[in-house]
Write a structure and sequence with these properties.
Strand content of chain A: 25-35%
Distance between the termini of chain B: 43 Å
Shape of chain A: globular
Oligomer: heterodimer
CATH architecture of the largest domain in chain A: 3-Layer(aba) Sandwich
Helix content of chain B: 25-40%
Helix content of chain A: 10-25%
Shape of chain B: globular
Number of helices of chain A: 7
Order of helices and strands of chain B: HEHEHEHHEEEHEEEEHHH
Number of strands of chain B: 10
Number of domains of chain A: 3
Number of strands of chain A: 23
Largest sheet of chain A: 8 strands, antiparallel
Largest interface: A-B, 66 and 60 residues
CATH topology of the largest domain in chain A: Rossmann fold
CATH topology of the largest domain in chain B: Rossmann fold
Order of helices and strands of chain A: EHHHEEHEHEHEHEEEEEEEEEEEEEEEEE
Radius of gyration of chain A: 24 Å
CATH class of the largest domain in chain B: Alpha Beta
Chain lengths: 423, 301
């Protein structure tokens, strides 16, 4: 379906021309404000540029990033065309900042993977593609940049497409088509404007693709309803609305209607939806990702962390699960380790039962289980939890299939998990 | 055609989700309400998240004492309408008690001093989470900030070591003395905010609309003149028709020439503008290349 608001990621380093690409996209789409342009012009001059605007400077956020010419953390940028609104999650490509790339990729609809036409498919591009696939980003675009430095050669472009296809065949959830676009962000070829120098290319230019792409999301009607309860709305007794009790949350997927029979998990109660309340009045029907409050026909014990769904489309209730975990802390994950797990609106303690095969990002092969999981490693991990979780596999539901792990001593977010199966 | 959520409804729903997470996972949250457009939107989102119950947190305004009187009048009226509790943390009191030292000269501003008052108030009331109306499209350091922005016990932001923030799972775990700044409007743009105000028909302070006032021109901006304003040689006070795009201190917030006198006209003006809101109106960001980053590291919003 066509989204009104499209979120996409880019990743790579300044060397790949990523910042230039974003700068070009914003500039050619006339989304750069005069004061920002003035700032770039001044900074370009300070850096000894000879009159030409260094569009990469548009995206540099932090002092340290400008100094080192690298991206350390995700920067979010916003622009709109007549057709759509866009949120760019501009991610770092360096391995040491993988956790920040994962942050940006987790909510994206489209991944734009950059390749330098001279240097070929390098590690950063592979990592971005792999993480994008792992995190279930529905669409992937490969931007083969710096075509001006390879004489706009169709042969070189096709060679790189072939090389990337060989790699992509092994990606998670492969099967959807990848779009390849030859471009020169520096000269503005095939970013917003079609290039006169690559007439052999008849596919979409980048902005056109971003405006038109039909994200392969299922419509809420096609998915089972998942409503994690976040908060119980219950005014103090004795007031006018004293008997009011409603369960507030954001519908993670699917749709709910007044009168629907529903189950409350993991406690297992059954009842019907008495009303769907919003500040703007009652609704007959609500669909994801709306926030609202449900009133139920029967008095059940429902609190934060319970999940409301249709009884014939229940998720799994389990205390044991397997997941692909991306490890994000210096301190390694070890078998037997205990962490706080945050899943939908539910918190529990998780114990690492087993660390399984680890993924080699270069070859996409799964290597033998390591003794412990190091920073930026991604491995299949088996966890046991102190309380039951109500979950779906990540591939069928990004919201009920994902969790984070928190170190109880440092309070840091140390792991991101994508559930592969309940055990 | 199957129904679909508009982008404003999607942003609204995301923000309501964030607010409820904070209410559920923190012990003493607070919502910062300045009377400005972004925090006006926050209040409507809080109504949508928690009504018919009262808000599970008080409101707080860090009052520099240099605010536009129209804004303070609006602030108090809005709080009264909502029937919620407002805490006013006063920069003047921080100065009087010696916690903060007033800048002097014609360019003096209380912008930096706000941080002292804010951190003191957070400590005094034991707040562990504070909602702010900041948006990522405002400024390049803000573009980098998480929705849950962790601050240590000095209120400091460490931009090179932010917690990963995946999906809609927010880690609000902190130790005593630390706090989290929460930005439900992270993904909104200035235009989204105005379109939302128009959609919800929210009242905003009158200075957001075109009006005539006494101004003087400095560094390419039009500042409000009031009795006691120190002028620099050559500056003259004149009448002009302006409106404000942001509501900050009178001393560092510039007005823009405008004829927009209704919400619909403001929306059109913002949609067509070629200058960012902070670039056009805020002197506090023009000090250095990384002015906002530096202030945030020191505990500012």
């Amino acid at each position: 379906m066509t989204l009104d608001l499209l979120r996409f990621t880019t990743a790579g380093s300044v060397d790949d021309g990523k910042s230039t690409l974003i700068g070009r996209l914003l500039y050619d789409a006339e989304q750069v404000y005069e004061d920002q342009l003035e700032h770039v012009a001044q900074a370009s001059q300070r850096r000894g540029g000879e009159g030409a605007l260094d569009l990469a400077l548009l995206t540099d956020g932090l002092r340290a990033e400008r100094e080192q010419g690298i991206t350390i953390d995700v920067a979010y940028r916003y622009f709109a065309t007549a057709k759509r609104r866009f949120i760019i999650a501009d991610c770092p490509g360096h391995q040491q900042y993988t956790r920040n790339m994962v942050t940006g990729a987790s909510t994206a609809d489209v991944a734009v993977v950059l390749i330098d036409a001279r240097r070929g498919v390098l590690e950063q591009s592979k990592r971005h593609a792999f993480i994008s696939a792992l995190l279930g980003i529905p669409e992937m675009v490969v931007a083969i940049n710096k075509m001006d430095l390879v004489d706009h050669s169709q042969a070189r472009f096709e060679e790189l497409v072939e090389e990337f296809e060989g790699f992509a065949a092994k990606l998670n959830g492969h099967g959807r088509a990848i779009t390849y676009i030859p471009m020169s962000a520096l000269n503005g070829d095939n970013v917003v404007e079609r290039s006169p120098r690559m007439q052999w290319y008849d596919g979409p230019v980048l902005l056109e693709l971003l405006e038109e792409v039909e994200v392969a999301y299922d419509h809420p009607y096609d998915k089972p309803a998942r409503f994690p309860v976040q908060w119980v709305i219950r005014p103090a007794s004795g007031t006018l609305t004293g008997d009011y009790r409603a369960y507030a949350g954001q519908l993670a997927s699917g749709a709910l209607r007044r009168g629907d029979e529903v189950a409350v998990l993991p406690s297992g109660g059954r009842t019907r939806v008495a009303a769907i309340d919003t500040y703007d009045g009652e609704l007959e029907e609500a669909m994801a990702p709306m926030s609202f409050a449900l009133r139920l026909e029967d008095e059940l014990d429902v609190s934060r962390g319970e999940l409301i769904c249709h009884p014939d489309e229940s998720p799994t209730v389990t205390r044991e699960l397997e997941a692909d975990v991306c490890w994000m802390a210096q301190e390694p994950m070890r078998p037997g380790g205990r962490y706080l797990i945050k899943h939908t609106s539910r918190n529990a303690t998780a114990v690492v039962d087993r660390i399984g095969e680890v993924v080699d990002v270069h070859t996409l092969e799964r290597d033998a289980p390591p003794a412990e999981l190091q920073l930026n490693d991604i491995a299949r991990v088996r966890l046991r939890t102190s309380a039951p979780l109500v979950l779906d596999p990540y591939t069928s539901n990004r919201r009920t299939g994902s969790f984070i792990l928190i170190d109880e001593a440092s309070n840091g977010t140390v792991g991101a998990g994508m559930i592969t199966e309940a055990i | 055609m199957r129904p679909q959520l508009s982008h404003l409804r999607a942003l609204e729903s995301e923000a309501i989700h964030v607010m409820r997470e904070v209410a559920a996972e923190f012990e003493r949250p607070v919502l910062l309400f300045s009377g400005g457009k972004d925090s006006i939107v926050l209040l409507r989102l809080a109504e949508k998240a928690f009504r018919p119950a009262p808000f599970p947190f008080p409101l707080m305004h860090v009052d520099t004492g240099h605010n536009f009187p129209e804004v303070i009048e609006f602030r108090d009226r809005r709080v009264e309408e909502l029937g919620e509790r407002l805490i006013v943390a006063s920069v003047q009191e921080s100065i009087d008690s010696g916690r903060a030292v007033e800048e002097t000269g014609p360019r003096a501003s209380r912008n930096r001093l706000q941080t002292v008052t804010l951190l003191d108030a957070i400590a005094e009331h034991g707040f562990d989470a504070a909602f702010g109306g900041a948006r990522r499209d405002e400024e390049r350091a803000r573009a980098k900030e998480r929705v849950f922005s962790f601050r240590d016990d000095f209120g400091q932001w460490d931009p090179k070591n932010q917690r990963p923030e995946l999906w809609n799972l927010y880690n609000g775990r902190i130790r005593k003395g630390e706090n989290v700044r929460v930005f439900p409007l992270s993904n909104w743009t200035e235009l989204d905010v105005w379109e939302y105000i128009d959609q919800e028909q929210l009242e905003v302070p009158s200075i957001y609309f075109a009006h005539e006032r006494k101004v003087f021109s400095r560094d390419g901006m039009l500042y409000a003149w009031r009795p006691g304003t120190e002028l620099i040689d050559g500056e003259e006070v004149f009448d002009d028709t302006v409106r404000y795009r942001t509501v900050g201190d009178m001393s560092c917030t510039g007005g823009v020439r405008s004829e927009a006198s209704t919400l619909a006209e403001v929306v059109l003006e913002i949609a067509a503008t070629r200058v960012t809101e902070r670039g056009e109106t805020r002197a506090d960001d023009k000090v250095t290349e990384a002015a906002m980053e530096d202030r945030k590291k020191a505990g500012y919003f």
